[in-house]
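Q: What does the assembled structure look like for these inputs?
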Amino acid sequence: MGRGFELLELVGRSRNGLKGREIAGMLEIPVSTAFRQLKFLTDHGYLRSSNGVYTLGSALIRLGNEAMRQNPLSRLAHGVLSELAEATSETVHLAELRGDRVVYVDKVEGSRPVRMGSMIGNTSPLHCTGVGKAILAFLPERERRELIEKIELTRFTERTITDRADFTAELDRIRARGYAVDDCEHEPGVFCVAAPVFDSSGAVLGAVSVSGSELYLRGAQEFLKERVRTAAAAISAELR
Amino acid sequence: MGRGFELLELVGRSRNGLKGREIAGMLEIPVSTAFRQLKFLTDHGYLRSSNGVYTLGSALIRLGNEAMRQNPLSRLAHGVLSELAEATSETVHLAELRGDRVVYVDKVEGSRPVRMGSMIGNTSPLHCTGVGKAILAFLPERERRELIEKIELTRFTERTITDRADFTAELDRIRARGYAVDDCEHEPGVFCVAAPVFDSSGAVLGAVSVSGSELYLRGAQEFLKERVRTAAAAISAELR
DNA sequence: TTGTTATTCTCATTATATGAGAATGCATTC
DNA sequence: GAATGCATTCTCATATAATGAGAATAACAA
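A:
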């Protein structure tokens, strides 16, 4: 069944759409099969085509809107995130765990213009992001251990933690003090402070973070940590 | 292949998600089949589940964002639409033809609070909407005839045009004067003025409309018609 | 005209999804 | 602690529905 979705993902990754032939080639499937799929997807609005080039279609916009509306966490949290972005002037993220990565489910830009690669719906690794570490640190021990074993500690910057013992120690530290810091471990120059969000049973649901230039944020860590933890607690409190 | 997509659409239509059982029932498929599909879709992020309730997932948010970015028409048109919404204080839509319906690809709310059922990615019938009639009127004769034959002139309000001869005459009128009016033919109390957008070859690509309460808009028809036609022409001009 | 590329069609083949039911896991209740 | 209810996963034989090679059609350019 995944065939159709592979096709969507492939077109989604392309900058300005793909031709039927290219798609068949990249997926290593016969041209006739590719076109049959393309026809189905186009007829249903998941793709659009204009003179031979296929791009993502309007049905995905509709489903995407609806997905945002249905996400219980971001629905409750959005107000708090906006306040946090306002108070800190920096970009605020709300993220959840999906598989062995974090996925951003909401984002509010602050007034300071720092461009980041993040987008709602995108995913990032666990080991080098504030939200990832904040979630991982507060997961039940068994899940946490499994994930630590499973993930690869890929190096992104010179500060990325790539040693499993170091990483376990870092998680212990995060659990002890209640918040996580990403000191340019994922994107050079980008500093984050993140805190976990819990449901009524005390299980970690996601994390909130404030991100921005290391030049501003490293010095403000104490202030940010308070703000982020307060915001995360406020969201947790709404989940009752 | 459509099975997975039917499932997404079903969950998308639900207000707050559905349980596995409900889905199986509504689609009239065995429970085991439903759960197999649900597992696939959940694993890939197209759905999310929390204690037995399935809602649309974050992968759809990502694809939806990307779909908006890839839509060539709305990418170019958005600025013009905002100006039109500003100038008229009413809600502005950009729509395209998809099959035998129109699909809204962009929407800018005006300052006047009129709630409408429209959403980006949603579709409406051709025969009772301003954008639908504006597009249909300027389609090449053969396509236009085929569509007129194909669509059902379903009655939505007492003003909906339900006679095929009347409808053909209405389209001739629209073609002659260059814009379309929906005088509460789809939603009671909602009045629209719409004008077509053309590509460089002169083929109709879509339509722009201004919608709002009949109380304000019917009297302002002359003013609106000028504004909407100017906006549509500006978008057409950008498509070179 | 001829050539090119996009798209649809046909049809035999088989891979893939299906469905019935059992099994597991996890709460809650008696 | 046995028992019930519910969500979810698993097994496996079966058939449906997707597949792929190639031909046919359509649109367009040189």
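Residues 3, 29-33, 36-37 of chain B lie near DNA strand C (CB under 10 Å from a C1').
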